[in-house]
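Morning - 2-phosphoglycolic acid inputs below, output right after.
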Amino acid sequence: MTIRPLVAGNWKMFGVKAAMTEILSMLEELRLQPAGCDALLCPPFTLLPVAASVLGGQGIALGAQDCHDQAEGAFTGSISAPMLADAGAAYVIVGHSERRHGLGETDAVVRAKAAAAWSAHLTPIVCVGETLQERQAGQTLDVVLGQLKGSLPSVLPASLVIAYEPVWAIGTGLTPSLEDIAQVHAAMRQHMAEQFGESGASTRLLYGGSVKAENAASIATIPHVNGALVGGASLKANTFVPIVRAFGN
Ligand code: PGA
């Protein structure tokens, strides 16, 4: 089965309107020389409407970095999935480790957010990944598969993307060996196919954590790696577009 790769940029809490020049450069470069890969940017909430108008629904898809699990209500400071859809987003990241570990989000919270995303016709990107301590204790597969089981419903209602992001590889410049990534992705694929049949067998499985232009081509060759979730290197056209191309080859 061929799965078209997806390279997603997670801008985290970076970027103001001036960053639209980077998005324009990315669009232009990918228009001049299209990559055999889908590209997605997830800027901060404040930039979604302006990014949606710059992107114009072409070339690069738009997503958000989180959503509340309720559609509306008295939740000061929160943003709901229908609001993201209204602002032009088609995807939303849920369960990023900076929220699981930084803000104490549990698998149950992540599952509820994924359900909210589906209800608003958004594609959730559900993140999983072990800490360094868990890896050193030999618990990587248990942790990752446990998070997958806990963060997904028993039936997939619509499209889904999974991102495997070892916590210790995020923003550190460290990456697991290609063999280690391969082992986790093979285990995730087996679980997804067993649990969800056809749709699990075709779910995009992204790798994330210190993906750069320099290591993207080798990561792209790993079986069951169907793209990347990119943080720091997604902020600039000259570091993001080469990663999109590496996965599109
Ligand atoms: P990084 O971040 O590419 O800067 O390591 C990845 C992520 O947090 O999604």
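Note: The chain is about 40% helix and 15% strand.

O.
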